[in-house]
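dumping the sequnces here before i forget
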Amino acid sequence: MKSFYRLLLSLLAVSLVANTVFAEDLTGTLKKVKETGTLTMGIRESSYPLSYLDDKQQPIGYHIDVCNKIVAAVKDQLKMPGLKIQQQPVTSQNRIPLVSNGTVDLECGSTTNNEARQKQVSFAVTTFVTNVRMAVKKASGITSLDQLNGKPVATTSGTTSVQLMRSHEKGKHINFKEVYGKDHADAFLLLETDRAVAFVMDDNLLAGLIATSKKPSDYALVGEVLNVEPIAVMVRKDDAQFKKLADDTIKGMMKSGELNRLYAKWFMSPIPPKNVNMNFPMSEKLKDLIKNPSDAPAEAYNQKK
Amino acid sequence: MNYHWNWGIYLEQIKGGEETYLSWLITGLGWTVSVSLCSWIIALLLGFLIGTLRTAPTRWVARLCTAYVELFRNIPLLVQMFLWFFVVPEFLPRGLSMWVKQDMPAKEFFTATVCLGLFTSARIAEQVRAGIQSLPGGQRHAGLAMGFTLPQTYRYVLLPMAFRIILPPLTSEFMNVFKNSSVAFAIGVLELTFQARQMQEDSEQGIETYLAVTLLYFICAYITHRGMTWIEKRMRVPGYIAAAK
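..and the predicted 3d for all of it:
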């Protein structure tokens, strides 16, 4: 028996020196990262201020900072300080395929956590909450959904805002004439050039578009909240080990107040490249989620009455 | 690869609606076919006119038509879509401009059709010109010597032969119209590519979505190809131009 303990002790010693031993226990993403020595982060090019490129084409933003913390935790756990980090730009069309096929290990963008997506991927605990609302020109005097009858309303193709308007109680008897932009900038152009009287989208994106527009004082965010959407960092499905590492890191940041500081840095103070302040105070929902972290999908926040 | 397959997705109901994803794709296909066929008609009419005029003996007319072809051939299709949709209405008088922007019915469809029609007409014009110029010069002289006027020479001698020569490249062009119509999604026409993006975002079944869309585009182009081959066979005059098989 004594020799057995000695064996165990020496094994422990060996494992501390040559940490390859615990590669045995690793699964999924962590195992892959350990074996390849690289971790690929998925980044967005213009999801202000969550994940975007600065004037030197480097990815920055609120979620990039969160992900850097997760990466640091990975380096720590794997004892690989020299871990190579690759950055792969993704779009809303390819982000989910790229995560599920293994190209991207950790997506740090602006992805809504919902039930359809949970069939393909997993999400870390929610780090941002967006409300779907509308941006209008102040001069139009529009303040509510029911003033949109027969008027052209802009949204971005490939998003589901129009279905949300239709399914909203106030929108049921209204005849919307929807017009589509191919991306958020184009859809905002529709509003700017009077092709649409309102632009329905996530409120943080609208705030960003307004803040960087030619005359921010011309526009206002108004109307009912059509949908509440939890936004989170995305990881591969069925990878409990990696998800736990990401979750624990974020929960730690929530507890220590670091996440609040990051929020203030990206949403409440001037940010590069134009030094514009988004001026977007934290919602009550997110304050709740920082106290009680959750990875529930959007459907949990929008129970149909 | 860690992908959740769902081949039943096409028949599933869309969240918050009564339609199925398949009905989205079918509507998209309808718009794709409408945009393509309408712009093909514009393209054929204008293409034949411009292409013919480029071979006309009047210098300034030929030059004007060359300028037209160069203009529409040298600008990317996507940029042309944006020019017609976003830029042109800004130059109209205020009242008309607002009408075009807000109240004009089916303005995306109209803009996309005109834009794609003009773009394709420049390409057809080039083929028509090449077809006419590939005929020996003697044909024109013979026609005129028979006492035909110049328009009659074109109508009864040159164009019928040129048309038969350019039928194969015209077939490709017809198929291209279907494929190019996908650019119309950028200005908000609810065509097939648009519906595909919408469906993939809504259902997160990207592979199934794009496979179905690929198949639908393929079928459109294939039917076009078969149809044009049939016309080619019907129009063939043995011994008329190149040796018939």
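Residues 17-21 of chain A have pLDDT under 50 and may be disordered.
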